[in-house]
Design brief:
The chain contains 15 helices and 11 strands. It is α/β, with parallel strands linked by helices. Among the domains are: 148 residues, Rossmann fold (3-Layer(aba) Sandwich), CATH 3.40.50; 71 residues, no CATH class. Strands 5-4-6-7 form a 4-stranded parallel β-sheet. Strand 1 and strand 2 form a beta hairpin. The protein starts with 8 loop residues before the first strand and ends in a 6-residue tail after the last helix. The relative contact order is 0.15.
């Protein structure tokens, strides 16, 4: 167990289908909810660069969208493996069953897969053809009114993501910018030499939803909400005149490099994955690195499934900073999601199932000898941080682990 360092973490919590701002001290694992940021009324404000964010009740019924998913039905029908469903950790299908059910989904017919999907994103990675089966599943859940979450949670969550509290301050940024997305409360995590030279696009927690990528609504089966808002979020980022954007959360990275292209949404800036950025920065600071000599387990988030080509930077960073990834079952393509969204899903038995997969995941880390559980996603940290800590494993963000390697104190 790691006992010679003290770590503090702040973040947002996605729990039971709801997104909460939180602060946490992981040394003692105390969690305090900041509820006042959720209860303020949404302001009727307009941005000065050609579009409006409006205070209004969102239509929760599926309807027509100006964006169409680029899904090749013929490619799917011709697939020889149907790995998107066969490999699913949460559903039990052989190849024949998978072919029958995916055909039903394509044809907008009721399928038990639509009812039992836990929205873990993994099928997006499993598909050997990059044909976006997960986006198709979520879209059909909405079209056929088969939401994974209860309607009250959906209504609450959809309202939460509306940008409010006035206009964001738009300043032109020369060079590469850092986008904190909906995690402006975590800007203390980036006060480091690792992020020198990067301008934070917005560090005002009151304005963070102007930069919120909206992709968490895949867990709500609400592609219509994402598609309605995403163009405006992109316009806000583009208004800073940035050419390259490092995204603190890889769900934002996945939004602009996977989801937006899949729906034909134009993105006028280049996105950089946080782990790729950290690896390159550590290479620049290589002479300052002291090997940490810890055994670590990486908690891969659902959003990482949208950028599997960047997953290699996990091991590259670990090698560079001198930590050893433990040999365990739930790793890489077989990684287990944190369970945050499963906890609140409508299907009977979901709470018990969530507890089971979390227990199995943490026991897997512990049995493999992990001293530190490394997190990418703040929601995963909030969900698993406390139980991981209780098991004797220190929860830590990847960026903070990198800071320790160059001699910085993480408090």
């Amino acid at each position: 167990m790691v006992t010679d360092r003290s770590f503090g973490v702040a973040g947002l919590c996605f729990s039971g289908g709801t997104f909460y701002p939180i602060v946490a001290h992981c040394g003692s694992l105390h969690y305090a909810f900041i509820s006042d940021t959720l209860t303020q009324p949404f302001a009727k404000k307009s941005l000065h660069h050609s579009f409006n964010f409006v205070d209004r009740r969102v239509n929760l019924n599926w309807g027509e969208s100006m964006y169409e998913l680029k899904f090749d039905e013929d490619m799917c029908f011709a697939c020889g493996t149907h790995d998107c469903l066969v490999k699913c950790q949460h559903l039990d299908l052989d190849e024949d069953m998978a072919r029958i059910e995916i055909e039903k989904i394509i044809n907008s017919e009721d399928s038990w897969v639509l009812h039992d999907c836990v929205t873990c994103y993994a099928c997006e990675e499993y598909c050997p053809n990059g044909n976006h089966p997960f986006y198709l599943i979520v879209q059909k859940q909405e079209e056929l009114n088969i939401p994974p979450l209860p309607e009250p949670l959906i209504k609450q969550g959809v309202q939460l993501g509306i940008p409010f509290r006035g206009e964001p301050e738009i300043k032109e940024i020369n060079g590469t910018a850092l986008n904190m997305g909906a995690f402006s409360v975590l800007t203390n995590r980036v006060q480091s030499r690792l992020f020198e030279g990067l301008t934070i696009m917005s560090d005002d927690p009151r304005k963070m939803f102007h930069y919120f990528c909206q992709l968490m609504y895949l867990h709500y089966a609400k592609t219509s909400v994402i598609n309605e808002r995403l163009e405006k979020i992109i316009a806000t980022i583009a208004a800073h005149k940035v050419k390259k954007v490092v995204h603190f959360h890889d769900e934002c990275y996945g939004t602009y490099t996977s989801y937006a292209p899949a729906f034909g949404i134009d993105v006028p800036f280049e996105s950089i994955h946080l782990f790729e950025y950290l690896y390159n920065k550590l290479e620049e600071l290589k002479s300052d690195i002291t090997p940490l000599n810890y055994k670590v387990a990486y908690q891969r988030p659902c959003s990482s499934r949208l950028s599997p080509d960047k997953h290699l930077f996990v091991d590259k960073i670990f090698s560079l900073i001198g930590v050893e990834p433990v040999d365990r079952e739930y790793v890489d393509e077989n990684a287990m999601c944190c369970g945050a969204t499963i906890l609140g899903q409508r299907k009977e038995g979901r709470r018990q199932y969530c507890n089971e997969i979390q227990k199995n995941n943490i026991e897997d880390m512990k049995n493999a000898g992990a001293q530190i559980c490394v997190f990418n996603c703040p929601a995963c940290m909030q969900t698993l941080g406390k139980p991981v800590g209780k098991s004797g494993i220190m929860p830590l963000f990847m960026s903070d682990l990198c800071r320790l390697a160059i001699g910085e104190k993480v408090v």
